[in-house]
Amino acid sequence: MLVTELALVAETDRISHSQLTRVAAALQKQAIRDFAPIWSIHATVDAFTTLDDVPIGYWPIIVQDDIGQPGAAGVHLDQNGQPYSLVEYSESWSLTASHEALEMLADPFGNRVVAGDSPKPGQGRVEFLVEVADPIEEAQFAYKVNGVLVSDFITPHFYDPVAAAGVRYSFGGNLDGPRRIVTGGYLSWHDPDSDHWFQQIWFGTDPEFRDLGKLTNRVGSLREAIDARTGTLPRLTRTVPSSPTFASVLAAAGGVKSATSARADGLRREIEALRAGTAPAVEWVDGD
Questions:
Q1: CA atoms within 13 A on the CB side of 212
Q2: With contact defined as beta carbons under 8 Å apart, do 74 and 232 qualify?
Q3: Where are the domains of the chain?
């Protein structure tokens, strides 16, 4: 079994090593516990202090203070065609890192499409761009792993032809049918008849369709081109601070830290007792 290896790297002084390792552990648990059973993709996520420490073969997720331009955020391909991701630092950087990790795992090269019936009236069969976090990307649909905010994601049933009872279309159960979106989400597809790219977006009061036009030239993957045009990650970063879900994570942070510190203190006392020879003795009764 091939295992995808992701490296989480913080090239910013605003993220401590403790924060970096906590988020990496949350992304690792999400990848193993939540994502792998649904998508059959197995991955590790490890934290590294600098890019110089990242072993060959790992796909980096790099967090920086300023990535230069909003369109640079997201997954890219290096000169050898290998994926890496850029995340601009914000208070909610764990959610963005989770979003990028999931999309890198599901479609590392950013060009995967799935055929299906268009949600736009009057269109027939189209090619949906596989973006596992975009239909439900807003923080209100996120969830917590180890007290860290991570992104919801669609399941392969998202591309089913019809809705069916008891089927889960996103991990968090936030979608009630295939090829549907919720507030703050979007879906992108290519119409072969017109050779145009279309989207259904829900960035305002109601969902709407828009014609992105014909993609005549691009550098990088389809997902890079679509995400840059849509402004995915900058919009996500702007909307997170006002989310009740994000507020609940901040409110619970003290309790999470208290619990981990209490456990650490207990382990230190046990270790000290072992070293001092004052730990309870082991006793055996009525043995051979």
A1: 22
A2: yes
A3: 4-242, 247-279
